């Protein structure tokens, strides 16, 4: 494709004639031509700094040479083994390697999938089968995927339209900026956990529940970082009733929170950890590591013809190599601290910013109409994200009110990348505050 590509808007209109809107959420007219490292080029050959990383997939950066090399080698060997019947060494070795990364993965057994959605769905199914209990606990604002089971444990507005599995009790996540009880941590004594304990002690008997699905950091719910001891306290409560702790690390695993496993960042050893997105740097692959008694109870109850695909496994080996050899989790921790500090400085100049928060390289900037009422500034958020795109920075927004700018850059970023992004964020928010981003431009994407 050449640099004089037709207008990006007309291309999106062409797309809308042939694809269902169920397949997209868009923020600006970005049409990809090429991706490399921390950069993305559009079909007009414009370069963007990528602080979205394809929704937290490109932890090692786009098209990492080591991923390309391993994948190319594998393509010449075999691409279509159905692991269900014809296992291969590379997949076994991969699980052995992941088990060795930390004490949270040690001793656990693997079950495979293609995506975050289907692995969470599979875990849901296995827990029902193994425990004989029907209920689950999950969180308001959670996102666990799009299949019927993972949709049911999710807690976004969309689930109000359809919540196929009725036995899911949805409870508040520790969203301290908007604490439901109006309390402050640590004085609150984690009332949100006490509330769950109260439910399990009273109206919903704890021994009727199979498990709890929880995100280490609630990302799509607004990049909500829980207090440091939230997961540990929740773990204690649910263990009173023998529920399985399912930590959904699909989005923030593989180094993003500053440790390889987010479970380590929050000091818990879940019964099940689900993984996906960054595992294979964009090739379809997901996995759950789980207690042996769950993984082994019924043979052949969670398998797919094409999973794990050998090319995906090759990419996963290379991704793991790059993360471990380059200490990318440490880099995520230090760059995340630096980015958070820089964003706090930006916040001082803009009343539109109500809160900035983050853990490692998953960060959120929450926009509000004013800091007193905290009314969500949803239109302004859409405009800010759009303006960032115009200025050459890729981001997206999240949250129950679509008013949180999410930053999930590749874990390979350095201070110069952070400085560049922060300058653009500062400028974009300034432009929104001063009315320099017209509604018409953004309307096509923002749904208002
Ligand atoms: C925490 C979490 N779990 C599961 C999923 C679903 O993953 P996928 O889109 O690969 O099905 C997502 C996707 O955003 C996610 O953020």
Describe the structure.
By secondary structure, the chain is α/β, with parallel strands linked by helices. It has two domains: 8-63 and 327-446, Aspartate Aminotransferase, domain 1 (Alpha-Beta Complex); 65-325, Type I PLP-dependent aspartate aminotransferase-like (Major domain) (Aspartate Aminotransferase, domain 2). 38% of the residues lie in helices and 15% in strands. The protein is built from 15 helices and 15 strands. It has helices at 8-18, 53-56, 65-77, 89-99, 116-131, 148-153, 191-201, 230-239, 262-265, 292-295, 310-325, 328-349, 378-391, 415-433, 439-446; strands at 32-36, 39-42, 47-50, 109-113, 135-139, 168-171, 209-214, 244-248, 272-275, 286-290, 353-359, 362-367, 393-394, 396-398, 404-407. The strands form three sheets. The chain has a seven-stranded mixed β-sheet, with helices on both faces. Strand 5, helix 6 and strand 6 (168-171) form a beta-alpha-beta unit. The chain is globular, with a radius of gyration of 22 Å. The two termini are 33 Å apart. It binds pyridoxal-5'-phosphate. The site of pyridoxal-5'-phosphate has 16 residues, from helix 5.
């Amino acid at each position: 494709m050449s640099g004089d590509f037709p207008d990006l808007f007309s291309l999106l209109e062409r797309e809308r004639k042939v694809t269902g809107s169920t397949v997209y959420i868009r923020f600006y007219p970005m049409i990809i031509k090429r991706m490399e490292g921390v950069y993305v080029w559009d079909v007009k050959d414009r370069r963007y700094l990528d602080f979205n990383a394809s929704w937290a997939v490109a932890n090692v950066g786009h098209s990492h040479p080591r991923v390309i090399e391993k994948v190319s080698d594998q393509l010449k060997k075999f691409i279509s083994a159905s692991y269900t019947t014809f296992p291969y060494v590379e997949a076994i070795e991969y699980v052995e390697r992941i088990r060795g990364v930390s004490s949270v993965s040690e001793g656990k057994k693997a079950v495979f999938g293609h995506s975050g959605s289907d692995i969470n769905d599979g875990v849901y199914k296995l827990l029902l089968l193994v425990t004989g209990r029907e209920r689950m606990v999950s969180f308001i604002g959670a996102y666990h995927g799009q299949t019927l089971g993972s949709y049911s444990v999710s807690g976004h507005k969309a689930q109000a339209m359809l919540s196929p599995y009725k036995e899911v009790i949805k409870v508040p996540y520790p969203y301290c900026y908007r604490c439901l009880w109006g309390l402050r941590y640590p004085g609150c004594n984690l009332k949100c956990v006490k509330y769950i304990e109260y439910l399990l002690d009273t109206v919903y008997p704890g021994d009727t529940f199979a498990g709890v699905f929880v995100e280490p950091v609630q990302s799509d719910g607004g990049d909500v970082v829980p207090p440091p001891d939230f997961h540990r306290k929740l773990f204690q409560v649910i263990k009173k009733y023998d529920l399985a702790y399912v930590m959904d690390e699909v989005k923030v695993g593989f180094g993003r929170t500053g440790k390889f496993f987010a479970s380590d960042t929050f000091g818990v050893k879940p019964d099940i950890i689900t993984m996906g997105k960054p595992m294979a740097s964009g090739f379809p692959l997901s996995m759950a590591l789980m207690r042996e008694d769950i993984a082994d109870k019924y043979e052949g109850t969670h398998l797919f013809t094409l999973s794990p695909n050998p090319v995906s496994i090759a990419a996963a080996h290379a991704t793991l190599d790059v993360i471990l050899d380059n200490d990318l989790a440490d880099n995520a921790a230090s760059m995340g601290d630096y980015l958070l500090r820089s964003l706090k400085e930006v916040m001082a100049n803009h009343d539109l910013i109500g809160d900035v928060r983050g853990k490692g390289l998953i960060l959120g900037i929450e926009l509000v109409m004013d800091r007193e009422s905290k009314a969500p500034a949803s239109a302004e958020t859409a405009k800010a994200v759009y303006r960032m795109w115009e200025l050459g920075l890729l981001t997206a927004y999240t949250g129950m009110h679509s008013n949180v700018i999410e930053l999930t850059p590749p874990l390979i970023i350095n201070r110069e990348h952070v400085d560049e992004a922060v300058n653009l964020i500062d400028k974009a928010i300034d432009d929104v505050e001063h009315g320099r981003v017209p509604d018409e431009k953004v309307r096509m994407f923002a749904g208002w």
